[in-house]
Amino acid sequence: MADSEQLSSGLSGLSLDANTAEVPEAGSAEGQLPEPIVTSDGEWIDITTLVDRAASELASGALIKQTHFTLFDAMMSVEVMDPRLDMGILTADDALEVSQWDIDRQLTLREALWVALQLLRCEMTWHGSASLLQTLYTCNYFTANVDGLPIGQDSSNAVRDIVLFPIVIATGVGCRYVWSEFSRYNLFGEEDVQMGTIEPQFFADFSQHDADILLYEARMYLEFRMNEPGARELIEIVDSRRHWLRALGLLSAERMIEDASAAADGLAELRQMHVAWPDDEGTPVRGVFDPKCMRRYAAAAPIKPRELIEGPACVQELERMAKDLELVESLVRVESVEHLVYMFQKIHIRAPSPFVRSLLMTTLANNEHVVLAESPEALVRRAVLEMVAAPPRALAGWFANGDIIRVFLDWFRTLAQNPPRARRVAYKCLGTWDALQGEAEQADIDAFGAEHPGRDAADPAQNPFWVSSWVYHMKLMLLEGALLGGVRLHVYAAYELPIIFGYATQGFEAHAAHLDRMHMGAPGAARTQRLQRVGVLVRAQREMAVATWLISHMFERLLVFRAPWHSKHSDAATVLRLESTSAQRARYALRFRHVSMLGSPTHLSFDGWCASAEHLDECLLPELLGHAQNALSAARTILGDAKDHRDSGNASVVDAWADACRLLYAVVVANLVAMARLQQSGVLRAKELMVSGAAALEYRQCFLQADADDAANDRPVRSKKQRKDIERARKWRDAVEALARNKLNVTCVQGAHPDWPVFSVPGA
To answer: What is the pTM of this model?
Structure first.
C-alpha cells in the first residue's frame, strides 16, 4: 500500500496538459530531474492499470509528462516500443551467455574456426555501414586486453595464442586501414558508416608487419596439425587474411601518393586471395560474442538492430570489395577525361562499398597529390583540345586561375560519394558549372576577338566558343546524371515520372543539338570519332527519354497516379484540392528548384509542361504505346549499330564506352519486351479505356466532384445529362480500378543501367 501511495504521489507532479505546461527556468529546483520512484524492496511493480486509468482521462492532444520535459526532448525521444530501446538490456538468456565468456578457455581448432568465421561476418557487416557496437565489438576476443598474453608463442593455450589471436589482430589492423579512409576527410559520415562516439582501437600496438609475421607463424603451426579437423579451413582463412592485409597496405592513399605503381601490386595480392565459406563451420563457443555489448559503452543514441550478413553472402561481399578495388588502380592509370567520365559512371552504377568509394575520393581529394598518370590540368586541357579543336593559345589565359580545374575535380569527387549524397551535391555543383560557363563564354569571346579582329566574336555562327562548349557539355552530363539518379533511389513517385522524363527529354534534345554544333566545328578524324562516340550515348538516351516519357504518361493515365481516389488517406475533396493548378505548380517548382535558375538548357516551365501534357492527352493509349515502341526501336538501332564500333582511340576508353552502350541496350530491350507483352495482353483495349487523356481527366473530375458533394450531404439538383455523365464517369472509374489492382512495376533490371526504369504490369 505504501508503494502505491508513493507511486501516486510521484505521478501527481505530472502535467496532463501539454499546452499549459510551463518549462522551468534553467538552474531552478523545478528544472532538476526528479528522483526515480522505487518500491521498498527495490522491485518493479506493474502500473498498467494506473496508466490506463490516467490515459482514459486525457482529451485528444493531451500529454502526460514531467514539467522538465520540453518539446526539444520530445523530438529527440525514442518511442517506447522502438526495438532500439532493448539493444542494451540483458535478458536471462543474454546474462547466461555473457557468463560463459572465459578468455583462458582452451580452444580446439574447430572452435577457433567458428570464431574466425563469425568474426568475418562481423567485419563484412561493418563494411556495409553497421556500427562497431553491432559487429566487431561484439567479439570479446576483439576487445580483450591482450597485454601480457603470449600471442604468437607456444603456450598452454596454443590454439588461442598462435592461431586465433593472430587472425583477430590481422582483422583489426586491416580495419584500421579502412577506418583511416573513413575518417580522412569525414566525407561519408553516418550515411555510410556508423561511427558513433566510440573511439576505435584496432590493435594500435601492432603494425602490418607484426600481423603478417603472426599470420605466417599461425600457418606454420596449422601445417603441423594439418590432419586435424578445422586445420585446412583455418589455413585458407590465414592465407586470405595475409593477401587482404598486404593489398590494403599497398592500396592505401599514402602508399599510392608515394608510388602510384603500388596499386598494381595491391591488385596482384587480391588476385591471389581465395575465400570460400567452408561446409564445416566449426564448433560454436558460448560467451565469445556479446550482441548486447553496447551497454558497456557510452553512445549518443540507441542503435537500430542489425542482423549479421550470412556466411556465403559475406564471402561474396568480400569478393565484390576486392573486385571494386580494381577501380582504384584504373583511376591511377586513367589517360583522358573521356575515360575518366566513363569510369566514374561505371563507379556510380556499381555503387561500391563505402571503403572503396572513400579510397577513390582520396585519390582526387588533395590538389597537391592527385594520384593520376597526368595532372588534372593536363587532362582538362587535352579534353578541351580533343573535343572542340581549340587553339592552344586560346586556352593559355583560361587555365591560369585554376577555376576550371577546381570545378572539374569537385565534380568527380561528387561522383565518388554514396548515391543519395552524390545526387544532392550534384545539384549544388550545377550552379558552379553554370557560373563557370558564363565566365568561359566571355573568355571565348576575348580569345576569338584576339584571333580574328575583324569578325563578330559574340556571333555563335562565327565563334565556336571552345571552352564554354566543353563546359556546357560537362554541365549537361551532370544535370542528366542528377535527374536520372533519382530513379535508382526511388525518389520519384510514379505520378512524377512523366514530369521527370518530360524534362529529361528536353535536356537530351538540347545536348544532342549541342554535340552537333561541336561536331561541325571540330575538324580532324580523331576529334570527329570522339564526338560521335559521345553523341551515340546522348542520342540513344534522348530516344529512351522520349519513350519513357510516353510510357510513364500512359501508365499515369491508365492507373491514374495523380492522387488515387481509392486511397484511404484522401477523400474526394482533398484530392480536388491537391490537384488544383496552384498546388500542382507549387509541387512542380519544388521538384525542379535546383535547376530552375540555370541559364541553359532552357528550364522546362510549368506552362510548357502543361502544354506538352495536353498534347499527349489527345492520344489514345495504344497510340502512346506505339510511339513509345518506335522511340525504343530507334534507341536500339543506335546502340546496336554502335556495339561493334572501334576507332583508333585509346582501347580502355572504347571498352568503357562499349560497356555503357551495353547497359543502356539492356534497358531498351527489357522495355520493348514489356511493352510487347502489355500490347498482347489486351489490357489497353477495354471499351471503357478507349478514350483520350483529356476525356479521362474530365471523367475523373466529374465523379470526384460528385463524391465530394455526396460526402458533404450537399447534393445539387442535377440534370439528366449530368446524371448520365456521372454514371459514365463512374463506369470508367470501375474499369480503371479493376485494372489498377495490378500495380505498375518500375524496376531496375539486373545487368542494365540502374538509372533507367523498366515498366511492367503483373499479369500482362
So the answer is: 0.75
